[in-house]
Design goal:
The chain is α/β, with parallel strands linked by helices and 469 residues long. It folds into 2 domains: 253 residues, P-loop containing nucleotide triphosphate hydrolases (Rossmann fold), CATH 3.40.50; 108 residues, Helicase, Ruva Protein, domain 3, CATH 1.10.8. The protein is 45% helix and 16% strand. It is built from 21 helices and 15 strands. The protein has an 11-stranded mixed β-sheet. It has a two-stranded antiparallel ribbon with strand order 1-15. It has a two-stranded antiparallel sheet with strand order 6-7. The C terminus is likely disordered. InterPro entries: P-loop_NTPase (IPR027417), T4SS_component (IPR051162). This is ATP/GTP-binding protein.
Length: 469
């Protein structure tokens, strides 16, 4: 209860100056209406250093991303996972990202191009524009003096060669090598490296040694020579496929002279390989190890390794283990691994679920384009996306994606310049007029996305009521 003096003082003040405090009754309203009381705000961005991707849909701010600039501050790892169904803009994002990164002098990019049309990979136009000749791995062309990559290239360490041979065999067999087969491979590899010094050893030498092992290798383990031959039979049959089977010509000779590993962009064109065959993960393993030992060097360059159809890596336990080591090793030397996958279920439900989880954990950046509702919910559970992001993913239109950069989640519209457009939208079936229509469709999609976003906010945030004094 107030004292009489205070009451008297307030009454006298009111008499002289009028009432100094206005009392208002509470107003009951909704958050949707009350939001007009507050100034517009936007979540902080990722900084202003790096390459521009586009703009944030909700705030309109420019969206800039660079794993090398963010690493160690906002990113625990520079690796990136891109998800989404075909036709929503993944390919355009990858290509413009690479083109913009290459404007920095200390950047270098390797692309495993597993898709293509008209007999060339879809990165062919960009390679031509930059004066780069793609490394086209084609069994038919290899037979006619095409590109070869030698798993026994002296540029690869002896330990790396043996690890690569084991991975090739395990991928083809679908299971790990037992001790006896592993021993037969090891002694054959050691003998070939010790005795062939006047040229590059090749796979044919390994196969021949497995078929006809040296007596010394049997004597060293106190076993019969026929036993050693039997232990290496399955290994020889698998390697024979690379020598005289459907993959012959690409790996059974010395590495092709003239492959420029110092070029700003290196494109491995795998479009002539059946993507659904066992050949693709074998190719991924060979290229991955070959690059690890010949391309990644401590020269202070920032390198990007972009893999199309990356489920060929993540869905094979043996190839996934190999790339997991490459990612850990490459992080110390400035390597950013970019994996492009259509559906997360392609990998998390596969034979290499454990290895896939480890690789996904290392990807601190995740970009998700439109997916069906059930796929979006599964993706959200695996990646730990917020509920609002999961609900909006099925409504996304082409060119718009949810970006999760180590917990910083934004909806981003990817922008393509007129200079980039002819290199990025490379569908040969499109005419010039249809390209113009595609441009109009992108602008329409942008407006539609903004309208949907506003409706989403109104529906989910405007239903709850609050009391405003």
């Amino acid at each position: 209860m107030r004292d009489p003096l205070s009451v008297l003082t307030d009454a006298f003040t009111s008499f002289l100056f009028g009432k100094v405090e206005t009392t208002r009754l509470p107003v009951r309203t909704s958050t949707g209406q009350a939001q007009a009381v507050y100034l517009p705000t936007a979540a902080p961005g990722l900084g202003d250093s790096g390459v521009i991707i586009g703009r944030e849909v909700y705030s309109g701010k420019g969206y800039i991303y660079d794993p090398f600039q963010l690493y160690g501050q906002q990113l625990p790892a520079p690796h990136w996972l891109v998800l989404g169904e075909s036709g929503n803009g993944k390919s355009a994002l990858e290509k413009t990202y690479v083109l913009r990164q290459l404007r920095f002098r200390d950047r270098q990019v390797v692309v495993l191009d597993a898709q293509g049309e008209d007999g060339v990979g879809e990165w062919n136009l960009i390679a031509q524009e930059l004066g780069i000749t793609p490394i086209r791995l084609d069994p038919m062309a290899a037979l006619d003096m095409g590109i070869r990559l030698n798993p026994l290239d002296p540029a690869i360490t002896t330990t790396g060669q043996l690890a690569l041979l084991r991975t090739i065999i395990e991928v083809a067999l679908g299971h790990g090598l037992d001790e006896r087969s592993g021993f037969a491979l090891k002694v054959a590899h050691a003998y070939v490296n010790e005795t062939i010094v006047d040229r590059q050893p090749v796979l044919t030498d390994i196969v021949e040694q497995l078929r006809h092992p040296e007596p010394e290798s049997a004597e060293a383990m106190n076993v019969a020579i026929d036993d050693v031959r039997a232990w290496g039979l399955d290994v020889a049959l698998v390697l024979d496929r690379l020598v005289d089977g459907d993959l012959r010509g690409m790996f059974d000779g010395p590495t092709t002279v003239g492959i420029d590993l110092d070029a700003p962009l290196i494109v491995f064109d795998l479009s002539h390989i059946d993507r659904n065959s066992i050949a693709m993960p074998i190719l991924m393993a060979i290229v991955g190890v070959w690059l690890e030992h010949t391309w990644i060097r401590p020269d202070r360059k920032k390198r990007i390794f972009l893999v199309e159809e990356a489920w060929h890596i993540i869905n094979s336990p043996f190839v996934a283990q190999l790339f997991q080591r490459l990612l850990k090793f490459g992080r110390r030397l400035g390597l950013s691994f970019v994996a492009v996958v259509h559906h997360l279920s392609d990998v998390v439900d596969g034979a290499a679920a454990k290895e896939a989880a480890a690789i996904l954990k290392m990807a601190s950046t995740r970009t998700i384009y439109a997916q069906k509702a059930d796929e979006a919910r599964a993706t959200g559970r695996v990646l730990g996306l917020p509920r609002w992001a999961v609900e909006i993913i099925p409504t996304l239109t082409p060119g718009i994606a949810v970006w999760d950069v180590n917990g910083n989640v934004q909806v981003v519209k990817h922008l393509v310049t007129e200079t980039e457009r002819p290199l990025v939208f490379t569908d040969r079936a499109m005419t010039q007029s249809s390209a113009d229509l595609a441009d109009d469709a992108l602008h329409a999609a942008e407006l539609e996305a903004e309208e949907r976003a506003a409706a989403f906010v109104e529906q989910h945030l405007g239903d709850s009521e609050s009391t405003v004094a």
